[in-house]
Amino acid sequence: MLNKIKQKALEEHIPILMDDTLETIKEILIKEKPKKILEIGTAVGYSAICFAKILLENCKEKNILIDTIELDEIRAKEAIANISNMNLENIIKVYIGNAVELLPTFNDKYDVIFIDAAKGKYPIFLKEAIRLSHKDSIILADNILYKGYVMSDYNKHKQRTAVTHLREYIKEAKENEILETEILEVGDGLAISKIL
Predict the structure, then answer these.
(1) What is the pLDDT of residues 70-88, one digit of tens each?
(2) 79-84 contacts: CB < 8 A, separation 24 or more?
(3) Residue 63 Cα distances to 56, 90, 133, angstroms
(4) Which tens digits make up the pLDDT trace of 83-130?
(5) Residue 56: is it exposed, middle or buried by C-beta count within 10 angstroms (0-12/13-18/19+)?
């Protein structure tokens, strides 16, 4: 079932978590055993389902909750159907709307926050993620190196906004004294920040 979701997403060019990035996150989830996860950018639910399955199978943890936000209503509905087909609707809750507007209405504290949405909004997502974290929470940001553009002297107009904001995210994540951040070159780049 999960493979079907993955194949369909790949065929339809819907961005989903790359395998090597998922492997890295799997190690983090098994080590940290989070009870509450927030995902910004659901797409068709692939990563949220993967996270739930990793925790259920490896940590035998039953009280997991994953909140996930998706802007695109069609994708969100597909995610809800996929989650339901996997019998995970008690664990994963999909919020449909703009994360920039929705996040300020959230007040729970999360153990892990996974950012994989509009690249131009990453600095806003980081600010909200810090607010919704507690000591030892982990904030993950996918595609942080954005096809290698972020660490190069790339300055073409088409991707300039995304690249500028991703650079801003990295600067804030590395300079903020309450964060301990490392950037891994897995997939399209993964930033891992721990709240100190």
Answers:
(1) 999 999 999 999 999 999 9
(2) 79/42, 79/43, 79/44, 79/45, 79/48, 80/45, 82/5, 82/44, 82/45, 82/46, 82/49, 83/45, 83/48, 83/49
(3) 9, 10, 18
(4) 999 999 999 999 999 999 999 999 999 999 999 999 999 999 999 999
(5) middle
